[in-house]
Amino acid sequence: DAGVTQSPTHLIKTRGQQVTLRCSPKSGHDTVSWYQQALGQGPQFIFQYYEEEERQRGNFPDRFSGHQFPNYSSELNVNALLLGDSALYLCASSLVDRVTGEQFFGPGTRLTVL
Amino acid sequence: TQLLEQSPQFLSIQEGENLTVYCNSSSVFSSLQWYRQEPGEGPVLLVTVVTGGEVKKLKRLTFQFGDARKDSSLHITAAQPGDTGLYLCAGKMGAGNMLTFGGGTRLMVKP
Q1: pLDDT value at position A40?
Q2: Are the beta carbons of A91 and A80 closer than 8 angstroms?
Q3: How far apart are CA B62 and CA A14, in angstroms?
Q4: CA–CA dist B38, B42 (Å, integer)
Q5: Distance from the B72 Cα atom to the nearest Cα atom in chain A, whole angstroms
Q6: Which of A32, A84, B98, B104 is surrounded by the fewest CB atoms within 10 Å?
Q7: A36-40, Cβ contacts within 8 angstroms, sequence gap of 24 or more
Q8: Radius of gyration, alpha carbons of chain B
Q9: Which residues in chain B are closer than 8 Å to A35, comparing Cβ atoms?
Q10: Separation of alpha carbons B52 and A15, rounded Å
Q11: pLDDT tens readout for residues B2-34
């Protein structure tokens, strides 16, 4: 049973560029959430997708957008990259609205903006 | 100001010692989860607590959810070098699966 997978593992971009990160959820899961983790900090919630729609959104600007596909996989897009966007981007999958809210995380994509 | 405050931020101890990590908030959570994260990897779920006052044990790790569901603690008995890592607490509030994370406790256990 494959867990959550993310690609690429590492990415280097320059300011102003655009980036797309990809995530495949754990088998059987229907909800994908994206988190940003700056160095030395806990993850910050970006948004969550269920049934191909954005259900919840954290305090992130519109430069951050996403998509969920019919097979439940998801993409995170970031436009007009800033130096401060450098972080580990984590994808987590879960089942919608479970009382426990358990989420299973992928290994992350390390984005460096120069 | 973070919604979930973890303490201590850093902890360096010798193998065999006991330790407790705290996760505190003024908000009520419907559930709270503890994760451990290794450098360059994603967080790995250790436990979920749901009921106020709940205690769960995972080998040498004991997790407790506060009676009011606003705080939690993680106690490790006889720490081992393999326990080294970043420990994160994360709370779920109400409907939806969004998790709010604490800032983490970085634990180093020296042999």
Answers
A1: 87
A2: no
A3: 45
A4: 7
A5: 15
A6: A84
A7: A36/A60, A36/A87, A36/A88, A36/A89, A36/A90, A37/A87, A37/A88, A37/A89, A37/A90, A37/A108, A38/A86, A38/A87, A38/A88, A39/A87, A39/A88, A40/B104
A8: 13
A9: 99, 101
A10: 47
A11: 689 999 999 999 999 999 999 999 999 999 999
What is the pLDDT at residue B55?
97
Nearest partner of A70 among A21, A24, A12, judged by Cα: A24
CB spacing of B104 vs A103 below 8 angstroms: no
Name residues whose C-beta falls within 8 Å of residue A42's C-beta, 6 or more positions apart in sequence: B2, B4, B6, B88, B90, B101, B102, B103, B104
Computed on alpha carbons and rounded to an integer, the radius of gyration of chain A in Å comes to 13
Count of A-B CB contacts under 8 Å: 83
Task: Report the residue of chain B nearest A9, measured CA to CA.
Answer: B40
Closest to A109 (Cα-Cα) out of A39, A4, A9, A22? A9
Let me know: does A12 contact A114? Beta carbons within 8 Å: yes
How far is Cα of residue B109 from the mean position of the Cα atoms in its chain?
16
Instruction: Give the per-residue pLDDT at B96.
Output: 72
pLDDT tens sequence across B28-81: 999 999 999 998 899 999 999 999 999 999 999 999 999 999 999 999 999 999
What tens digit of pLDDT does each residue of A22-79 get?
999 999 899 999 999 999 899 999 999 999 999 999 999 999 999 999 999 999 999 9
